[in-house]
Amino acid sequence: MSDPHDDEDDDYEIDEETRALAFETVDVAPGLTAVLAEHIADYDMLPHVYFGDVSRWAEAEAARSGGSSELVALLALLESSYLTGNGDVQNLIDASFIEMVEDNPAIVKLLQPVLLSRVQPYYRPTKSVGYPCPVCGYSNLKEPPRLPGGGGSYEICWSCGFEFGVTDDDNGYSYLQWRERWIASGMSWATEANHPRPKGWDPAAQLASLMD
Questions:
Q1: By the 8 A CB rule, do 23 and 36 touch?
Q2: Of 99, 119, 177, 201, which is most buried, counting CB atoms within 10 Å of its CB?
């Protein structure tokens, strides 16, 4: 479905990946077409608000059909988008979909592995769905910290804040030095402003898994 507001000049800047995902939902679940049209009429496009509507549609669809092809396709889209999307996309799915449906067993039983891992009590912070951080044990880096050619990935670990290729190569910190610094600072989630900590995040358990 095309976006009728591509040329708008809004004061509030919306991440383009979250905006694109909102429009992709109707491609896989045409039953959301009227929901999206009503949302645009009321709000233009606010992805977090729209995904609240999506979660309610999903719950109604699960109650009606138990698992229609459109609902299954929507959940598959969210699964793949969580794996490949940026932090804003992951936060959108976590905060405005998973948290809305996690108490609904009819939805939970249809979730694929990565989204299921975001649901309490299934969430396990040490269960790897990506690459582990060698500094703090966070298990969801999108790339290996060191690339095949030997250079850093320039990815920032959301948990401890280590940027591979910068914190080490440019600033001279070893993994051990940064780990000790992170522990001394209280093992706080380093990127709270842009990437809120996962539900149930346990830094001590995460670090223990690295030491096993």
A1: yes
A2: 119
Give the model confidence (pLDDT) of 82-126 as tens digits: 999 898 999 899 889 998 888 788 888 888 888 887 875 544 443
Local confidence band at 153 (pLDDT 50, 70, 90 cut-offs): confident
Instruction: Give the whole-angstrom CA distance, residue 3 versus residue 22.
Output: 10
pLDDT of residue 102: 83
Last residue of a domain, one of 116, 150, 174: 116
Tokens of 93: 């799915």
pLDDT tens digits for range 16-31: 999 999 999 999 999 9
3-state secondary structure of 152: strand
Q: Among residues 116, 135, 153, which one ends one of the domains?
A: 116
**Quick one: DSSP state of residue 150?**
S
Range of the domain at 89: 16-116
Amino acid at 64: R
Distance CA 7, CA 203 (A): 44
**CA 82/CA 94 separation, integer angstroms:** 9
Query: Does 49 reside within a domain?
Result: yes
Percent pLDDT > 70 in the chain is 89
* Total tally of structural domains belonging to the chain: 2
